[in-house]
Amino acid sequence: MKNKQVFNWFFDALIAILFLVEYWFDFTGLQIHELLGLIVFALLLVHLLTHEDWVVAVSKCLFQSLTKKAGWFFVIDFVLLAMFLTITVTGLMISSLLSLNLANYEGWRFVHVSASYLTLGMVGLKIALHWKWIVNTASRKIFNRPMTPVRTGNVANTVSETRESRQLSRRQFLEGTGIFAGAVLFAGIEYSSWVSKNVVDAVKENAVNQTQAQTTSTPFQPQTATSLTSQQAVGSISDAANVQPTTQPTTMPTLSPTAVPVVQPVLASVRCNRGCSFPGHCRRYEDTNNNNLCDLSEW
Question: pTM to 2 decimals?
Answer without folding.
Answer: 0.60
